[in-house]
Every structure is written in structure tokens, then in C-alpha cells.
Fold this sequence. Notes:
By secondary structure, the protein is of the alpha+beta class. It has a domain at 3-61: N-terminal domain of TfIIb (Single Sheet), CATH 2.20.25. Helices cover 21% and strands 28% of the residues. The protein has 2 helices and 3 strands, in the order αβββα. The chain has helices spanning 3-17, 84-87; strands at 30-39, 42-49, 55-61. The structure holds zinc ion. Zinc ion binds next to loops.
Amino acid sequence: MDAESKWxxxxxxxYLKHQDNCPxxxxxxxxxxxxxxxxxxxxxxxxxxxxxxxxWLDQYRLHGVIIGSYPTDRVPRDLEDSNPNEAFKR
Length: 90
Ligand SMILES: [Zn+2]
């Protein structure tokens, strides 16, 4: 990896913790470009810095789940068994 690529990787890493600032010039004058794109595992959105003109793709990936509602008759008798295929075997 050349020096510039290394620097860009560093800026990308920094941006993950400071998403309100352009990864190149640190400006807060950011705008989204076009529609949020969706696929099975995530979403992405192009962002542009209105000050320096840098563009990048924000990538969102599913990182957690919270079950909101469920049929109680599907709760296995043995709650220790987290494998539904095993839990429902008779
Ligand atoms: Zn910028």
C-alpha cells in the first residue's frame, strides 16, 4: 500500500468516529447525494463535502437485532436451547 492509500485508510478510520466532519478537510458542510441505496445486508449513501468537493460512500451494515414481537407458542420449552430446529423436535 502506497503512502497516499495509507493516509486515505487513516482518514476513513477517523471518519467512522467523526461522521459530522469531512474526512479530508474536516468541514461540517456535508450533503448527501442521491437516494440511499439498499441491499440485503445494508444501505449506502453518497456524501459530498460542500467545501472541498470530496465525495465518499457511507456504508451501513446490520450490526444488531432486537426482537419486538413474536408468537409465544414458538418459544421452546427448554430456553437453554437456542437452536430452533433442535428445540422443536419431539
Ligand atoms: Zn471537505
